[in-house]
Specification:
Largest sheet: 4 strands, antiparallel
CATH architecture of the largest domain: Sandwich
CATH topology of the largest domain: Jelly Rolls
Order of helices and strands: HEEEEEEEEH
Strand order of the largest sheet: 1-8-3-6
Structural class: alpha+beta
Number of domains: 2
Helix content: 10-25%
Number of strands: 8
Amino acid sequence: MSLQRLYLPVGLETKTYSIPTFVAKIPWWILPACSGFVGRSKEITWDEATTTVTNARLVITRVHSDGDPVDVWVRFNGTDLKRFLWKEGTKCTEKSDIIDVPLLNGKNILEVYACKMYPWIGLVTVTVSAYIEVIFDGETPESPWWTDVWQWFESNWQWIAIGTGLIIVGGATYTYLAQKRR
């Protein structure tokens, strides 16, 4: 039995859905520049006949900017939610927040839009980590295992490609060096 059952009324169940960490990069040129909307989606589905969503919260655990001054807007399912601001001299400070959000039955999208406030040369990276916490009344929906695997693959495909390339090059090198010389 989970500890969550001790604090919720009978029939209510809390479930968290992680959103893979993602990065919004602001270009390096001099003009004030923006990243455009960058984000991740999370598929949350339930049977509306047997389950209702009592509450949904977006828990932004970490927003980090490696440059300043930077302005970051957060939106969820097309609705602007929060604005984070790093003033001059405040780079590398982490920010977080918990926000009640309207949840869609299906694909839910978390997006950020980051902008440099003054012109300077240099790339700025804004990193976002978050999850969705949902309280269900009725049957708690279970997500199929392949959605979690696919989401993990989407967020790590670059590392998988690099690792695969290194294994191929390493194998070819080993095969070449292991051959007997005549």
